[in-house]
Amino acid sequence: MTFASDWLTVFTVGMLAIATPGPDFALTLRSSLVHSRRAGIYTAVGVCVGNTIHATYCLVGIGAVISQSILLFNLLKWIGAGYLIYLGIKSLTAKAVTTSSCACLDSAAQDISRLTAFRIGLLGNLLNPKATLFFLALFTQIVQPATPLAVKALYGFTVAVLSLVWFALVATVISKRSLKSYVLLISHWLERITGGALIFLGLRLATAEAN
After folding, report:
1. How far apart are CA 52 and CA 138, in angstroms?
2. pTM to 2 decimals?
3. For 71-91, how does the pLDDT look when each residue is reduced to its tens digit (9 = 90+)?
């Protein structure tokens, strides 16, 4: 395969995987709905950095070690599952937004810091061993021993940028004031649905197999 076709494979598979709803999508959606567009975008940045780290260690071979170590895989799996379930339970306790609180929906009191939003995206992504397996499955199909380091870096950079662009777009669209005005009265139900999805994803992650 040529470089162009290999890169196109990375781009296509990466985009399909990122666009498929999962923990990263649920976390970005929650930050955008519950807090603000800024929080959603910084959560997306955290996801991007997490994907960059996954891609880097997979490309240098550490990911293969993790995927073959039952102890390491299970440790990462249970920590990640617990984190998602914890966030899901928090979302399930969401309260309805009252008329008096509508005016301050976008205020700093309702928001979280950039670092907190970034950490939500980063930890949610890093603590998902399925991300390791995805990058291993993708890169082992196209990366050869003779593949230049710059080309490997481009492959990893491509997936990371795709995740940043996609989830930042999700955060921007879902946090539009016109859209929020329609979902405001049912926002607590949306958050509870997201919380249920996070718990489901956490439980699914807890049953993941390293194969």
Report:
1. 14
2. 0.73
3. 877 787 788 778 778 877 877
